[in-house]
Request: fold
Amino acid sequence: MTSPGQRGDFPGPGEQADSSEPDEGERTEQAVDEVLRKLDDLQELPVAEHVERFEAVHAVLTDALNRAENLLSGSGG
Reply:
């Protein structure tokens, strides 16, 4: 998430200000938020199911970090 005044408040080159379609950064952020919510009920699950949850979270977080690295390095994808 971004705070007021951060990059996410303004459209980038080629984007429209009123676009309802989330950009790649917003989609990645939504995916991270969604997968982290899978940890909320972890204590209610049998321990045998914890590994699957952790692996799902790890995969999404790894993907998000790779996307951020690609954006920062300028390789774009």
